[in-house]
């Protein structure tokens, strides 16, 4: 009898947890966002602040896809990269430090999206591990350099599984961390973050 | 029992809506982009073409520009221009950067090394 009394509250609380964990991100949104109505955006090559390699190749298409599907026309990363490279601007850090108004003059874009990869690593604990992917993003108005939207978020995924004994758990933690691909975690983090950008004019009605 | 079943169905729906899947045309487009950035050439063409084939009613924004940029890198200028035209027809705002690309970006395969436009570089980096 006691057990049946417990099931309902447990279910409801887990349901509430599930709902609210998807809604905790709090971006900074410019109060004049709706009046400024950016529609044409240049996603700058992501700046890698970690020791990970080949991150741009993975992260750039992900962020571009998420923002485009949010309803913005984003300049093709292949086109943007080709123009930057022909100007000897291979380093994403240098590109990100350029005055936003220059992008308006050159590409005619309403806004730029700056992306910084702050974490891209596996962390080991005594008997566990986690894979962390962190991003900082900022949408900037190219007309005056004002911030339109910004958000930081770290997504940490701990591989699940049970093992017998401490040694088994240690081995399992190391194997799981080594085998866990970063891409789906980066996808999820980018999706959660970009979902908080107000919908653009090309969004499906 | 009924409550448990209903709750499970609701939770399942919630998870599915939270993890909304990427449409197939965008999935192929992303693979093509990654392929391009990894410096592969011929292999990427099939992914761009798959993305175009999979686009039924709406072509992903930027897809023709991206494919054009890839063809341009491979030295297929005529085909690249065709793709750029398709993109401009759909999204005229992209005309300016595509014109810059055709004018300023040197071709890789044609052995026609062009001196990079240093004035452009200065204008980009002047704050």
What does this structure look like?
With 205 residues, chain A is of the alpha/beta class. Chain A has 8 helices and 7 strands; from the N terminus they run αβαββαβαααβββαα. Chain A has a single domain, classed as Rossmann fold, CATH 3.40.50.10610. In chain A, a hairpin with a 5-residue loop joins strand 6 (129-141) and strand 7 (147-157). The mean pLDDT of chain A is 86. Chain B has helices at 2-18, 24-37, 42-54, 63-73, 77-90, 95-104, 118-125. The radius of gyration of chain B is 21 Å and the shape is elongated. The N and C termini of chain B lie far apart (66 Å). Mean pLDDT of chain B is 81; it is low at 14-18.
Please give the share of residues in helix of chain A.
Answer: 40-55%
Largest sheet of chain B: none
State the order of secondary-structure elements of chain A, H for helix, E for strand: HEHEEHEHHHEEEHH
Q: How many domains in all of chain A?
A: 1
Judged by helices, strands and strand pairing, the structural class of chain A is: alpha/beta
The CATH architecture of chain A can be named as 3-Layer(aba) Sandwich
The succession of helices and strands of chain B, N to C, reads HHHHHHH
Rounded to an integer, what's the Rg of chain A over CA atoms? 21 Å
- Compute the CA-based radius of gyration of chain B: 21 Å
Question: Any low-confidence stretches of chain B, pLDDT <50, length ≥5?
Answer: 14-18
Global geometry of chain A? globular
What is the class of chain A in the CATH system?
Answer: Alpha Beta
Strand content of chain A: 15-25%
Helix content of chain B: 55-70%
Mean pLDDT of chain A: 86
What's this entry about, in short?
The complex is a heterodimer of chains A (205) and B (127). Chain A is an alpha/beta fold and 205 residues long.
Key words describing this protein structure:
heterodimer; A: 205 residues; alpha/beta; Rossmann fold; 7-stranded mixed beta sheet; 8 helices; 7 strands; 43% helix; 23% strand; B: 127 residues; mainly alpha; 7 helices; 0% strand; elongated
